[in-house]
Each structure stands twice: as C-alpha cells, then as structure tokens.
C-alpha cells in the first residue's frame, strides 16, 4: 500500500502525520468535569485511527539470474605438478577503479607459493580469488588459470572483473520506456558489475507499484562482459483493503471501518494515487487523498496529500453538542539514501498546514487554530543473522512547528488566546522528537520474539493534537483507547509469537508498558504523569495478500485505574483486514 511505505504504524499518508484534532483550551478550576473530560476526549480522537503493524514486510519482488560463462583455461595436465614460486595477476585494471590492491590478492594465495601444485590445485587457488571478488560485490567476476608459459615458477592468474557490455530493456508494462531507461542510467556499458549498484537500481524500479521486474546477467559479446536483460511486466493496477476493528474511542464510536484504495502507475510515470476513508458509524468520519510521483530516476519522490476529519462526541457528552474538524494539507519529499535487500534507509522532509476547530456549543466554548509544521526524519529497516536472524525497523523524526490560535472563547467570555496564555501556553513555536525501534527476533523455527520501543520528547507544552497516548489497541492494551496523554514519554511492547502447525496461525503472549509526562512544564489544571502496564494473550491469523485477523485479550498489571472510560480488569481487541488485488 502507498500509505504504509511512508509512515510507521499509520494508515494515513504523510510524513510523521497524525490526525490533528483536539482542543488547546486550558482546563482550569472553573471548568466542569464534563467539559474537562470532553476537551481531553477530543484530543484522543486522533489516536483511534492508528494501528499496529502485524507482519514483517514482504521481500522485494526482484529476481536476478546470472548465466555464467566459463573462461578457457590451461588444458588438463592432472598428472603433472607445477613448481610454484609465486603468482601474478592480469586483468584487474587500475587499482583506483576496483578499490582492490594486488597486495590483498597476493595475501589470498601466499600459502600456495613455494609448493608443487597440480592444475586442479591451481584452479582451487583461482577460485579463492573469485570468491574474494564476489565478497567485494563484483558478482560476475571470475579468476582462472590461462594457458601460459611457466617462467621462473610464476603462475599467472587471469581475472575478469566483469563489465556491462550492453543494457537490454524489455518493458511490457504501463511504465514508460523513458522513465525505465532513466532509472537504469547508472548502469553504464563499460562499468563494472557491482552488486550494490545493481541491487539499488532494480529495487528502486521495483518500488514502483503495479509492476514486477526480473533481471538476467548473461555473457556479453566481448570476453569479460555481461549483457543485463531487464524484463518489466504489469501486475495489479489497483489494490485495496477493507478493515474493521474496535480500536475507536468510546465517545466517537469504538467500531471503526476503513477502506483504502491505491491506483498504481496512473500516468506511466511511476506515480500512485491513494484514497482512504474511516468511519465509526456516526461519531467519526475521516477521508484523505494522496499522490506521489518520482522526480527523476534516482529514487527521489514528491508527495502531496489532503486529509479531513470530523468528529462528534456521544455517550455521556451527547448533551454538550461537542464536535470538531481538522483539515490537513501536506507536501513531502522522500529519498532512499540506502536501498538493498538487507538494509534500507530513507530521508524525509515534509511541510504540513493544519487547520483545527473544536466546539462545545452548550458551554459556549470553541477554539479555531492552525499550525504550520515542518518535519525532517530518517527511517529504515534491516535484516541480519544475529542469534538466528531477525528484522529491524527504526525511525527518527524531528518536528518544528508554530501553532496560532485564530479565534475562540471559553464559556463565551474568556478569549481562547488569553486562556492559553494563562494556562498551558501551547501557542507559538514548538518542537518535538519522535523515535521508534522494533525487532522481530527468530528464536527457533516456530518461535519469534518481537520487541518494540517508541518515544517522544517535547520542547514545551504541546497542543493535544501533538501529544502521545498510551492506551488502546496500538499501545498498552489493558487500557482504553486514548488513555494517558502526555507531551513526552515512551511505550514498550514485548511479544512472544509461536507458529502453530497451521502456517497461517500464530499464538501470542505480550507485555505492554508505558509512561507519559502529562505536560512539559506544570500549570494549574495540568495533566498528571501516568504509568500504565499490562499483559495479555492473542492470536494472529494471516494469509499473505488475502487477509489478516488479530485478536488480543489484555489485563492490567498494577493498580492504575482507567479514567477515559470504564475501568475494567480485562479488555478485548479485534482487528481484521481483507486485501484485494
């Protein structure tokens, strides 16, 4: 999905975006409990439309086949032993181009010097050199023993590092030939065949939705060259998913329904157009449009998006006639600093204009404000073989913004700007830093351990739309959605996942723990610091590209009561997603 590639754990598109909706009005001693709770609930709405990643991202759909050419060598003389005093190398080119010095190659073969070796043994020495070149990324390099006259016991090992002879594009997809060739431009005929460069180029092409790519390196017309044949085929032009969960807020509707639709390669320029909508059956409606397009052939992408949310509070707050909206317009750039099979790192820069409005009509209270926000960040993923192997996901985002209170009153008499100045002082410039790290560690063929950490640091008191929340299906699952908000804090999750005999079914045991500092600096009516902990059991039932179902039951650890909803000993969370291609 287009949106899932941009924001960790968020079904909306944008750089470090959340639904920006809530009240920035301070809570003072004069505010009734119902109004205070309503103001806090407005800030929780954004948290109800996030979700937790359930599975490891699939492997990139790229195949590279290598058709090897066996170079001619010395005719067989198996019964004869050659007196070897040393080795020399031919064909390695200039040291600077290869970044390989002959002294390194000599170190690989020095133990064979001073011996008498058969031709088979000499070929084994040459294979060492071949493996060394492969380890350095020269994926079609070959070292062999050529026909030669033995002089002074010096054996020549010929090296064919492998160069591109030609690039052949077979494009049968909607992607334009012009863009495909531009993306292949870094693989120049005459340049060395390096794994890192080839992987990056092919993976960047494969990142285009609606296509599949396969590459074949076959012997070229000239000795020591390879022809790269790239086949691009169409896949799905449209992808969609429909999901339902009970991750919503009590006062806007717990049962959320979401639909996402992505159109791939709309114009033939590698672009994608996305639409998403969320609805809780009356209390919350959200929709968004997103468009992303490559700029050039190096992997840089430009995205634009618009998102609008409307909520109304029901249940205990229905009589207050409380509702609000948020409208977010964002523009962003994404660039892959590193793109390989096992490690990826992306840089992100974004700008967002957010317009927010909250009203409690029965209390003559409303607040209209807007924020201009810049975000810059890094995010990525990696695979490794440490302790049996694992997958890591990580990210760091710095947000710099300015919140302006445009209009509003508290109880029809106190200007919103004045009440903010005397209370939380959220207006004006603000900064915050968000980070996350997760690892899925293989323990055995059937058992994996998941660990996740996320946190936020703030430079001042934040508007509720910028706070972090602990409770809910995406946080400490023993507590209700949106429980415990704060300007800064952390959330830890550990899960032990067991693969049953049914390959689609995993059993899960988990522990969640989090802490938030209610406000960066204290004031009258400031939120309390909170620590929440819980444990539980769950299951994940998933079939790739078909559907995913997750069920969790969690209970509290400790005596911290829930205050945003009824306090319970246990909570049940259910989420299901159906994928369409």
Fraction of residues in β-strands? over 45%
Number of strand segments: 28
**How is the largest sheet built, in terms of strand order?**
10-11-12-13-14-15-16-17-18-20-21-24-25-26-27-28
**Radius of gyration over alpha carbons?**
30 Å
Any idea what the CATH superfamily of the largest domain is called?
A: membrane protein fhac: a member of the omp85/tpsb transporter family
Count of individual domains: 2
What would the average pLDDT be, to the nearest integer? Answer: 85
Would you give the CATH topology of the largest domain? Porin
CATH architecture of the largest domain: Beta Barrel
Q: How would you describe the oligomerization state of the chains in this entry? A: single chain
State the secondary-structure class.
Answer: mainly beta
């Amino acid at each position: 999905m287009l949106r899932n590639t941009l924001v960790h754990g968020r079904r909306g598109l944008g750089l470090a975006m959340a639904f920006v909706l809530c009240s920035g009005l301070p809570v003072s001693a004069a505010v009734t409990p119902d109004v205070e709770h309503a103001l806090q609930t407005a800030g929780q709405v954004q948290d109800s439309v996030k979700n937790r990643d359930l599975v490891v991202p699939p492997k990139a759909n790229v195949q590279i086949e290598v058709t090897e050419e066996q170079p001619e060598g010395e005719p067989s003389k198996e019964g004869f032993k050659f007196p070897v005093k040393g080795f020399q190398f031919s064909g390695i080119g200039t040291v600077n181009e290869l970044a390989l010095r002959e002294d390194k190659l000599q170190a690989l073969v020095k133990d064979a010097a001073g011996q008498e070796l058969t031709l088979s043994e000499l070929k084994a020495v040459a294979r060492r050199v071949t493996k060394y070149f492969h380890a350095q990324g020269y994926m079609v390099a070959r070292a062999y023993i050529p026909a030669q006259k033995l002089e002074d016991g010096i054996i020549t090992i010929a090296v064919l590092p492998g160069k591109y002879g030609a690039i052949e594009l077979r494009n049968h997809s909607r992607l334009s030939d012009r863009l495909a060739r531009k993306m292949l431009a870094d693989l120049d005929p005459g340049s060395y065949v390096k794994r890192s460069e080839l992987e990056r180029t092919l993976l960047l092409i494969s990142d285009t939705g609606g296509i599949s790519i396969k590459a074949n390196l076959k012997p070229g017309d000239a000795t020591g060259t390879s022809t790269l044949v790239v086949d691009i085929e169409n896949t799905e032009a449209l992808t969609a998913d429909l999901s339902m969960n009970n991750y919503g807020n009590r006062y806007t509707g717990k049962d959320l329904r979401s639909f996402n639709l992505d159109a791939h390669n709309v114009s033939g320029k590698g672009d994608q157009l996305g639409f998403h909508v969320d609805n809780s059956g009356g209390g919350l409606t959200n929709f968004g449009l997103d468009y992303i397009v490559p700029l050039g052939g190096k992997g840089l992408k430009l995205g634009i998006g618009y998102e609008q949310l409307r909520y109304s509070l029901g249940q205990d707050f229905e009589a207050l006639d409380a509702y609000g909206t948020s409208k977010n317009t964002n523009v962003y750039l994404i660039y892959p600093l590193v793109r390989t099979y096992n490690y990826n790192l992306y840089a992100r820069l974004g700008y967002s204009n957010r317009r927010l409005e909250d009203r409690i009509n029965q209390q003559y209270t409303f607040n209209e404000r807007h924020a201009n926000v810049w975000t810059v960040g890094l995010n990525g993923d990696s695979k490794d073989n440490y302790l049996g192997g694992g997958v890591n996901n990580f990210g760091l985002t710095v947000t710099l913004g300015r919140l302006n209170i445009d209009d509003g009153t508290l109880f029809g008499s106190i200007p919103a700007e004045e009440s903010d100045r005397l209370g939380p002082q959220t207006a004006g410039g603000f900064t915050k830093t968000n980070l996350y790290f997760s690892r899925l560690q293989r323990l055995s063929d059937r058992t994996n351990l998941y660990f996740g950490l996320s946190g936020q640091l703030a430079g001042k008191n934040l508007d509720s739309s910028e706070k972090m929340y602990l409770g809910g299906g995406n946080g400490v699952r023993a507590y209700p959605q949106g429980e415990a908000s704060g300007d800064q804090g952390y959330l830890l999750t550990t899960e032990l996942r067991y693969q049953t005999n049914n390959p689609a079914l995993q059993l899960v045991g988990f522990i969640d723990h989090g802490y938030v500092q209610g406000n960066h600096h204290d004031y009258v009516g400031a939120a309390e610091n909170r620590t929440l902990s819980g444990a539980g059991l769950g299951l994940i039932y998933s079939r790739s590209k078909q559907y995913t179902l997750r069920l969790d039951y969690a209970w509290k650890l400790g005596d911290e009561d829930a205050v945003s909803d009824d306090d319970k000993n246990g909570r049940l969370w259910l989420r299901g997603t159906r994928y369409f291609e």
